[in-house]
User: Which sequence fits this backbone?
């Protein structure tokens, strides 16, 4: 599992993205575990993303957006990025 990035943790952009991902996950009625399974990421990593602890790689943004059935661009738009 990836450890939180000390230099990026809780940056406003990561927090905004995490909030957007959590809201979309909850709209689908998914637990973090179910979401992580759909996105093919570790559950604890998913929790860290929602808390703004991880600076996501593009590949993970794409996995997450596909799991949420939206484009990566739409996900970033929802996060106001």
Assistant:
């Amino acid at each position: 599992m990836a450890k939180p990035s000390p230099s990026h943790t809780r940056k406003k952009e990561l927090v905004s993205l995490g909030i957007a991902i959590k809201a979309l996950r909850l709209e689908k009625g998914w637990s973090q575990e179910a979401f992580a399974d759909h996105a093919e990421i570790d559950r604890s990593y998913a929790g860290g993303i929602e808390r703004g602890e991880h600076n996501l790689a593009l590949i993970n943004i794409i996995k997450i957006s596909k799991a949420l059935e939206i484009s990566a661009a739409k996900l970033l738009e929802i996060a106001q990025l």
Helices lie at 12-27, 32-39, 43-50, 58-67, 72-78. The mean pLDDT is 93. The radius of gyration is 11 Å. The longest helix spans residues 12-27.
